[in-house]
Amino acid sequence: MKKMYKLTLMALVAFAALFASSCKDEEYDLDDMKSDGLNIHTSLAAPLVKSHSTFADIFDMESIKGYLRPVGGDPINLAETGLGEIQQLLSKPMDIKNTTKFNSSVIIDDIDFDDIFGDENALPDIDKLMFIFDVETNVPFDISLKIDFVTGPNPTNFSPRIPSLHNEVMVPASKSDKDIVKTEQIIEYGDVAKELSTATGMLIELNFTVPDDLKYPQINLQQYVDIKLKAYVEGDLNPSNF
Predict the structure, then answer these.
(1) For the stretch 95-104, what's the b/e string if a residue is b when 16 or more beta carbons lie within 10 angstroms of its beta carbon?
(2) Mean pLDDT for each consecutive 10-residue tract of the chain (242 residues)?
(3) 8 A C-beta contact, residue 164 and residue 217
């Protein structure tokens, strides 16, 4: 499987480590001392994920599901069509019907938080957790970008999800290749340290649908979705528990 996303920190664990080591321009509450060490109330923003994915990348993912519906042609089942065939079909721009829809997803595993978040751990309390998506795209699709956290060993797309951490943002379609859509979308949580402590994977899903006002948009392999994801957290930090 060709992964669509590249972690710029070692999963999210490195984010917590960076949180612990950050001192610059932060304010610390030195009056709140615990018997097992110093409790610091602080905040940090850090980059997590960066990707630039063309349709050639997206159509090559094992998780791709859905159909392309060419104008004047038979529907193309993306789950059963190899990239070589897709590249041949899209050697020239393809006019598609607005009933075209498909989705792809990626699981980011290796983010076991049970020794970082929650009671007796380095991050016992979270006041605010934000995921900030900076998205740039020229695809003629509305994009529903969903985020989930899953539990259990060897996380996959089918692992149990944590319902309270599910969220979704919408990215509007581009009206043409020359119309570059740039948007910032924010997902915000409150105190979710307990829930995060059970997470072993982060699932990101993209759902593509054509808006009603685009009757016969064109697609090509060079159209792209560029995603940068960073996290911002405010909360209590107990360095002695790292």
Answers:
(1) ebbbebbbbb
(2) 43 46 42 49 68 91 92 94 92 94 86 67 75 94 94 89 94 89 92 84 92 92 92 70 54
(3) no
Asked if 45 and 186 count as a contact pair (C-beta separation under 8 A), the reply is: no
Write the DSSP assignment of 172-196 as a string of letters.
PPPSSTT--EEEEEEEEESS-HHHH
**Contact assessment for residue 76 and residue 67, using Cβ atoms and an 8 Å cutoff:** yes
pTM score = 0.79
Strand order in the sheet with 6-7: 6-7, 40-54, 224-237, 125-137, 181-189
**Alpha-helix residue ranges (DSSP H) falling in 10-71:** 13-21, 55-58
Q: How far apart are CA 62 and CA 201, in angstroms?
A: 18
Quote the CA–CA distance of 204 and 148 in Å, as a whole number: 7
Alpha carbon 169 to chain centroid distance?
Answer: 10
- Give 206's strand partners: 104, 145
Q: Name every residue whose Cβ is closer than 8 Å to that of residue 74 and which is 6 or more positions away in sequence.
A: none
Distance CA 4, CA 81 (A): 18
Angle at 65 between CA 62 and CA 66, to 5 degrees: 150
